[in-house]
Amino acid sequence: MASTKKPVTPDYKINFPVKVAKSRIAGMGAYAVTNMPARRKIGDLGGLIITMKEAMQIVKQSKGVVNMVEFGNGYALNAGVNANDLRFINHSCNPNTYMRVTQNRVEFYTLRTIKKGEELSTNYGETHHDGKLPCGCGAKNCKGFI
Ligand SMILES: [Zn+2]
Predict the structure, then answer these.
(1) Structural domains in the chain (count)
(2) How far apart are the CA of 116 and the centre of ligand 1, in A?
């Protein structure tokens, strides 16, 4: 995979603006500013494309929250740099958005109609927490851990 050419970081855009405020799940959260129809692209997670080697070093050095998404092609998105408000979307076991990872983008889509003022959430799936981080999403089907 190391032979893959490093993708150029594209211009990441948000189609539906969000408001950052205290989360009902954890820390800060992203809230819908307008009603959003189902199955629409909310936007791309902001960040900088780096190699997996660089990503590992950043994860190792940081003791706090790391916003890193692996593309699976030898590169990752460091959402702590060139960031946008979509990085505040928290994990939920019963999410209202879907996170789609492409070769150079982390896109968020609405799973259903989202009303103005609703907190956005997504299922992180397999994360670097290895299922050891307690989940506070409050959903009826909560798995308990991320
Ligand atoms: Zn949960």
Answers:
(1) 1
(2) 22
